Amino acid sequence: MKANPTYLLDSLSNNDVTFFIPPYQRNYEWLTDNCKVLLSDVRKVAEANLSSVKTEHFFGSIVYVVEEVGFGVPAKYILTDGQQRITTTMLLLMALRDSIEDSNYKTEIQRRYLENDRADESVEYKIKLKQVETDWEAYKLLVLGHDMPESLKNSSVYQNYLFFHKALDSFPEKDKKMLLEKGLMKFSIISIQLEPDRNPWENPQEIFESMNSLGKPLSLADLVRNYLLMGKSTRQQSELYNGFWLTLEKRLTGKLSEFIRDWMQADQHRSFKVARESNYKELYGAFKEIARKRSVEELFESFVRFSHPYSIVCGLQQTGIRDLDQVISDLNVIGVAPAYSYLAEVLAAWESQILSDGDVVEILTGIRTYLLRRRVLGITQAENKFYPVLGKRLVDLSESQDKAASLFRQLSSQEYALRLPNDDEMVSRLRSLNFYNLGRSRNYPKLLLSMAEQHLTKSRPAWDDSRLQLEHIMPQKLNADWRRMLGEDSESVHQELVNNIGNITLIRHNQELGNKSFDEKKETYAGQSGLQVTQNRIIDQDAWDVASIRRRQDYLIDLITQKLLGVPATFKRASNWSQDDRVSSSFDQRATLNPLIGESIEFVSNPAITAQVISDSKVLFEGEEWALGPLTKLLKQRSGAKVSKTSNFHGASNWSWDGIKLVDLDV
């Protein structure tokens, strides 16, 4: 390692060097606020030096690896640290060049700092700082003084240049020159050259990760990209980045970290924590274990293959098949980010022609039914950890003759918390449910009524139609006319049924109908604003009272349970969860618990209840040591279950680790 104190602009003016930002680095991300701080620091240093107070500003370290490229060509300084600061400095220099009127001064800034006199006209070497691909076009146009197309004007590179240029407009000409001569020229740095060939401990990857552990953390995608590209030559890095990673960035803009985590789930068929800033490093550690025995090319190819079905599942692309695109849109309205890994696996099987068009529509419709039935009952528990396990069973599903029945068997084979609600549960809940306020932003009632309209007319109302709104037939505020219609018990009827499913409908209308009379509302429903689901069991009524609301309630509940969210006959009245605590006699609990010593396991019926494994036969719960069987019996009794004195429970069926029942763990 060679460390040399120097000045930033002295480094940038060296014509024997061209700085390269390697593909494993993150994109340029400095905000306008960062630029304000830099300009303020430059101004303070300039003003101090103008007042005869000799001042410098330490601008941190610049870390790089030198790559020789042949005689007559400037050496490549491959930046490991300093990308954001050097890029922002270059943008400030461009803004100074473009705001100063002195043509000689302009030429000198361009010649000394922005372009390289020693390089030929090959732009890659002629420009002093080669950006990563996503920032390169905008940066190159700014350096060369060309017009910026509209498509690039939102880039951080252009926006920060624009900030500097506008800020400098208010400076007199001499002050602009002093910003450079007395300010920026006094910014000192430590220039650090790594020598990994001589000193293996100067590993650029480890140093890159270490130096980025402070400040804004690297995302999971940043860490993975770094891991896969670091150690390759710049030519190989460019080929891999342009051939693979750039495809991911374009296809999954803003979702790459979530994608990496979901790829891991699909690859391993186990759950991982949701990708958040707080656990990026933990997920990165798990990724390295997965990647350890695979080539970089193999991993990149797997990413790109998975990214296409994943982008469809996320709603970023469409298949062009109406029914398939519709059910995917519905799933995203429901909110299925935890299921993306599994849904992308299903679509990948479809793209590989393992599943037909009809098969994939049938499977995703089944998932929609499963989720909406659970949302009606207000159940979301444990779903995160279930989907990766479900992906392991996709082969069995693809080979079955009856895809719907096979899927619902899989969905009904889990613990109670993951159950498929049957028709009895659905009917009971829908009768008493505040249907109007079901789900965030009332998306679920709007979706269910849109599905009902499609069932009745073969036409789905456009989801983005600004006129589409939920409507209370009996209004939320009663006037005298409505009270007379409802009779003596109007207040209690209103309180009980105003948000009942029978009183909620869907219309296309530009304003609320409020407490208009029932006759006026019927006229609107019968016209262009009305949908079929709004006309059925409404406009044929003379009055809107308890009997009318209950009549339409039963009609809609039957439509939802039997048609829109129908399940095969064997699941309609069944207990659709695993009832079997029996396990094979070949199961070895000690072998399963031994690798889990020190880990927490969850009680399947209530994952909020946890115990710590302390040996190959005991767990710690509420300060006491327990065998799993007796502890399971205790917790069953606490939950109110009928447990006889002679009842025995096999703990491995009732406890899970990382979302997988102990009995199903591979040991």
Automatic annotation (TrEMBL):
Pfam families: GmrSD_C (PF07510), GmrSD_N (PF03235). Residues 421-558 form the GmrSD restriction endonucleases C-terminal domain. Residues 12-229 form the GmrSD restriction endonucleases N-terminal domain. This is DUF262 domain-containing protein. It comes from Rhodococcus erythropolis.
